[in-house]
Design goal:
2 strands, about 240 residues
Length: about 240
């Protein structure tokens, strides 16, 4: 039961950190969360755990928060800022991939004790991280595009730009994460695990994404409330 509790706690902590970053630093806080989550998720994706009766990669929760970030930015700051977060994540992942691989080229000193562990972890990561980078770019760009397509649809149907936030949030995230889960499972793990394990990884990962998607809807509403409060304060200051 410890893994389940840790996962739930991680989701709450990470989503709360994104909201806190947005409240204190505005969109810069969300850019920061997106970059950190993207880098750490590439490492966490190497860790396999069993929770809720399913095998899954630990990186699922951190990848989920990147979708929350782009949805908040889409809703509150606009499509351009949401895409900027995506490109920052791509840049951060590429930078980290190249830098971490360069560590393996150094000849360790006599007193070094950490190099074997570093090599153990990062010598097997290029495929994982390249897969993550590719899938992140595809699914996140698609998510931003789909969010605004849903937004145009809901605005046209009800004539109100602010209505149906829950629909565009979940409608974009659930579909984008289905694409993300399928592509990452194939790119990162095909040939490494048997087909049964691949299916298990895919299903468990998507179940986590469905849970986090439903949980991030209140977070997006809170973020819009934070944004509205900031705008109101700026107008009153003028």
């Amino acid at each position: 039961m410890i893994n389940e509790l840790l996962l739930i706690g991680s989701v709450i902590f990470i989503f709360a950190a994104a909201l806190l970053g947005y409240k204190i630093f505005g969109k810069a806080g969300l850019f920061c969360v997106s970059v950190i989550a993207t880098i750490l998720a590439n490492i966490e994706a190497l860790i396999m755990i069993k929770a809720f009766g399913m095998e899954q990669t630990l990186g699922n929760v951190l990848f989920a928060v990147t979708f929350l970030v782009t949805d908040i930015l889409s809703e509150c700051e606009g499509k351009k800022e949401a895409n900027k977060a995506v490109f920052l994540g791509i840049f951060a992942s590429a930078f980290f991939l190249l830098l971490s691989q360069s560590w393996l080229l150094y000849a360790p000193g006599e007193s070094d004790w950490v190099s074997p562990a570093i090599k153990e972890v990062f010598s097997g990561t290029p495929r994982m991280m390249l897969s993550s980078l590719s899938v992140y770019a595809i699914s996140q760009i698609f998510d931003v595009w789909l969010y605004h397509k849903w937004w145009a649809f809901t605005e046209k149907k009800c004539g109100n730009k602010r209505s149906f936030l829950w629909l565009r949030n979940n409608g974009s995230t659930l579909i984008s994460q289905l694409l993300n889960t399928f592509l990452f499972t194939v790119f990162a793990f095909y040939g490494t695990y048997d087909n049964g394990t691949l299916v298990s990884i895919f299903l468990s990962s998507y179940v986590i994404y469905v849970f986090t998607s439903l949980l991030d809807t209140p977070a997006v509403y809170l973020a819009r409330k934070i944004h509205d409060g900031r705008v109101k304060k700026e107008k009153s200051a003028e």
